[in-house]
Design brief:
By secondary structure, the chain is mainly alpha-helical. It has 21 helices and 2 strands. 70% of the residues lie in helices and 2% in strands.
Length: 600
């Protein structure tokens, strides 16, 4: 017993070697303390994991809410942005009230169209470079100020003179009776209206493209705002003709209508400046860099965004935040230690780096887009289809009158210009929504493993929808290239208008979707803005052709009107040929995309 007791007294405890640490009072207490420490450690670890997961889920939920709120705001902007399409509602009143000539009325509408179409690449570049918010804020002032100038000019009335004869003499002179505002003020107002329309439209569509362009519903996300833009002029014209109506004459009260549009569009622009937001733009920029590196569009050139190029760019742009110079291998000078990134500088440095990446992507993307031969094939085909579509809509009134040569004959209500405008608008809207939805379900999508392999077993390319819709568009032109339109106008013209509306709407919806698929969404505003220039030029060209053929059919009896199929047959046959040429051009472009492995 003594030996065992002696052995127990001389046994070494686990912590006897550490003189700085206290012995545990008993083995039971030590065990309990160790278990408590382990449990506390595990509890701390799992609480950190759970807290991190909650934070990530909250961040994702907030981003999702911001994305869909931005989509709703974009829809609101597009539902109001197309006010210029209701110009025919008040254009004739410029002649009767302001005493403008037809040339001056055309000059006002042309000023709006030029500012809306010709500068779309600039508007798109500003949207890509500085985000949609500043651009839609500018559109609020352009549209609100433009309609306010137009309203005040209209309210001031025309400049009137009265011929006054002096008593006792035969001399007479013109005396100013009423001083109206100069015609140039109306031009300036509609220049702002056209520019504001393009800014608000591009801001909304670009936001949708960048937020949803990488998802499964990119087609619908682009088609819906584009369709709403087409509907905006329709509902605004109904509001103008029914709400803002003069009791005496029955005409629209242009002054009150312009004030309504000024207030509405100014408010919508301000809402857009607060609500339009591109979510996860950092990931979008990083993916754009990866796309450019592996898509083959760089022709073997790598993006110079690493090694010395990145270090030099970062050093120039973040001077004072960090220093990349070292005094030797693995050492840092003491004078330069203070220049290394501190925690409070990390966010500023990452923000600067993201801006450099974005600037690099935008600088490289547009030259690639502009020099790509397939882009020119796509744009020229778009020119050949949208030009005839715009011309058909703008001249449907004179086109219908060619089938009613009798002075007392007029188109019945079912075949009136207003009816055809509604047919074209509804067919165009349905085509935009249908193509966006159906192509989302059937079009091939890149797989997550290999970038250009389709993820669906049964797929139909968006190009097929583009080609088929253009063929329907040409069928509407062919119906008018024969005598059928003149012989049976009540049947042929509505069918032709439906085909034109379907083809026009589908082409206008599918073209930006294809641009986002082939060239990405980071530079979407600039790319789509460049292609969106061509409808204005196409409308001008085909309107001249239509006017030339129509004027050639006018008789020698002094009449200014043309009757019969000869007034338009050759024009629409040429339009049908132009549509077939567009189909061929798009087929060639599609072949080039397939050779590059681009999924459309």
């Amino acid at each position: 017993m003594a030996s065992s007791s002696s052995h127990r007294d001389h046994s070494i405890e686990r912590l006897d070697f550490d003189s700085q640490r206290q012995k545990r009072r008993s083995s039971n207490n030590a065990y309990e303390s160790e278990q408590t420490s382990l449990l506390a450690s595990d509890e701390s670890f799992f609480s950190d994991v759970v807290e991190g997961a909650i934070v990530r889920d909250r961040r994702k939920m907030a981003q999702r809410i911001a994305k869909y709120l931005s989509f709703l705001v974009a829809i609101l902007c597009c539902l109001c942005a197309g006010s210029i399409t209701a110009f025919s509602l008040y254009g004739p009143l410029f002649i009767s009230h302001l005493k403008y000539s037809q040339y001056q009325v055309n000059a006002v509408s042309t000023a709006a169209e030029l500012s809306m179409y010709l500068l779309t690449p600039l508007y798109g570049w500003l949207c890509d470079r500085y985000s949609p918010r500043p651009l839609v804020a500018v559109s609020a002032f352009l549209l609100g100020g433009g309609y306010l100038l137009a309203a005040l000019t209209y309210h001031a009335g025309p400049t009137l003179y009265k011929l006054r004869t002096h008593r006792g003499t035969d001399k007479s002179e013109l005396e100013l009776q009423r001083q109206g505002w100069p015609f140039t003020v109306m031009i300036i107002g509609f220049l702002g209206i056209g520019a504001g329309t393009a800014c608000m439209y591009l801001s909304a569509v670009t936001t949708c493209a960048k937020n949803f362009g990488r998802g499964r519903h990119k087609g619908l996300a682009l088609a819906l705002p584009i369709a709403c833009f087409g509907l905006s002029g329709m509902w605004q014209s109904q509001i103008g003709s029914h709400v803002f109506k003069e009791e005496m004459s029955g005409n629209i009260d242009v002054f009150r209508y312009f004030l309504f549009l000024a207030g509405l569009l100014f408010a919508v622009g301000l809402i857009g400046s607060l609500g339009l937001r591109i979510v996860n733009e950092e990931e979008l920029v990083d993916e754009a860099v990866d796309e450019l590196e592996r898509s083959g569009l760089l022709d073997g050139r790598g993006i110079p965004y690493d090694d010395r190029g990145e270090a030099q760019a970062d050093e120039r742009s973040t001077r004072g935040v960090r220093s990349s110079r070292t005094s030797g291998y693995g050492t840092i000078d003491s004078d330069e230690a203070d220049e290394l990134p501190k925690p409070r500088h990390v966010h500023a440095y990452n923000t600067m780096k993201m801006k450099l990446k974005k600037r690099l992507v935008l600088r490289l993307s547009f030259p690639i887009f502009f020099r790509d031969p397939t882009m020119w094939l796509l744009a020229f085909g778009f020119f050949l289809v949208t030009g005839p579509g715009e011309t058909y809509q703008n001249n449907i009134g004179t086109l219908l009158m060619t089938s009613y040569p009798e002075p007392s004959a007029r188109p019945p209500p079912g075949n009136s210009p207003a009816t055809h405008v509604s047919i074209i608008a509804l067919a165009s809207t349905l085509a935009r929504l249908a193509t966006g939805t159906i192509t989302d379900m059937l079009a091939p999508t890149p797989s997550s493993d290999t970038h250009y392999k389709a993820g669906r077993k049964c797929t139909v390319s968006r190009i097929w929808f583009l080609l088929i819709s253009t063929a329907l568009f040409s069928l509407g032109q062919l119906l008018l290239a024969t005598d059928a339109g003149y012989n049976d106008p009540e049947t042929v013209f509505p069918i032709s208008s439906a085909f034109v509306g379907l083809g026009y709407g589908a082409v206008f919806s599918l073209t930006p979707i294809i641009i986002s698929c082939v060239w990405g969404v980071e530079n979407f505003g600039t790319n789509w803005g460049t292609v969106a220039m061509v409808p204005g030029a196409g409308a001008a060209l085909w309107s001249l052709i239509y006017a030339k053929v129509y004027q050639a059919g006018v008789g020698d009896d002094g009449s200014l009107e043309c009757f019969g199929a000869k007034c338009y047959q050759s024009t629409f046959f040429a339009m049908a040929i132009a549509s077939w040429v567009a189909i061929a051009l798009w087929a060639v472009a599609w072949k080039g995309w397939r050779q590059r492995g681009v999924v459309v």
